[in-house]
Each structure stands twice: as C-alpha cells, then as structure tokens.
Amino acid sequence: MTARVYTFFTAVFFCISAAFPATNARLAVENIAKFLTDSKSVTIRYVPISDSQVLQPQIICIMGDKFKLNSNEMAVWYDGKTQWTYLTDTKEVSITEPTPEELAGINPLLILGTLLQHYSAKNVPDDNDTGAVELVPNTNVEGQLPISKMRISYKKTDYSPKKITVEFNAGNSLELQVKSITKGINYPHSTFVFNKKQLPQADIIDLR
Known about the structure:
Number of helices: 3
Order of helices and strands: HHEEEEEEEHEEEEEE
Shape: globular
Low-confidence stretches: 1-22
Largest sheet: 13 strands, mixed
Structural class: mainly beta
Distance between the termini: 23 Å
Number of strands: 13
Mean pLDDT: 83
C-alpha cells in the first residue's frame, strides 16, 4: 500500500467470554471511548501494520475533533474540517476535507465514539488481564460502511486500548499496536494546522 493510499486507510486504539451479554460489550466500547476523551487531549504512540506489512511507528495527538499525526513517512494535520497531508518522499502537501469514512481509514480511533450507532458489539476471549470486543455492522447497514469488522483489545483496569485490528470492506486490513498513551497535554490550535513556513519547500495540492 503506497503512502498516499495509506493516508486514507491507516493514519480508533484500544479473559472476557463471548457468552457475556452484548450490553457489557457495548459498555466496554463506551468506556474505551471515554478513556480517550475524558481529558483535554490524548497522545498515542503506536505501530501500524497494514495488510501484514509493519510500517513506521506513528504518534497521533488528538484533542476534541482535531488531530496531528507524525511518522517518518508523512505528517497529517486536521483542524476538525480541513486536512493537510505531507508525504516526505514527494515533498507534497495535499489539502482535503475528509469524510468520516476517510477519517476512519486514517485512524479508527477517530471514530470510536460513534461506532455503536451502526455497529453491534460482543465480547471475545483474550488474555487474563486484557479484555476484547468485536464490532460488526448492524444488519440494516451491512456492506454500506467502510469497516466490516473491528476488534479492540484493552486493559481491564482502566479500559486503555492495547491493540485494534480492523478489516475494511475493500479487502485490506489495519492493525494498531499501542505502545504508550499520554493524556492531558494542552496543545494550541496551531498544532493541528499546517504551517507553510515549517515546510517552505513543499508543493501544495488543493484537492477540496
């Protein structure tokens, strides 16, 4: 998968028996989402694996509906409406206004709080100190959503995400292995907006 395509399908983290009631699984997803949103911001370091290919480690800073993503291959800024994507190999910055589906492809963490609107959750077995839930689309929207299945592993003690595995309807897959999570940093708004002065050599491509 090329870095440009990967921008839209990679760069949403996070032994319970499957026999437990589905409402417990929904509560787990809600608690995972709450863990990620109950402070001013969350900064997550993780390793993405796209279609079995291990990619460069990434850092994503999320504050409200804004985020900044960094890796050796690219940087992405999103201010809640506009997204700037810089690819280091081409030295190009593309400007878009992504859909929720495209945001899900960049990082499933970004839509975790809204998944229960269209997905059903169930508990699945995992390690003793780790819970896991699996989400699949509700029957009435099956095939209409970009994600066909998502599995979230989390720490039972605080519901912090440990690993997310996503299968997309397009046939590709994405796994995020969480390495660390930091909460509460007060990022200025400028963190989530591309600054041309920082990359004066970049070519700007406006795709809006």
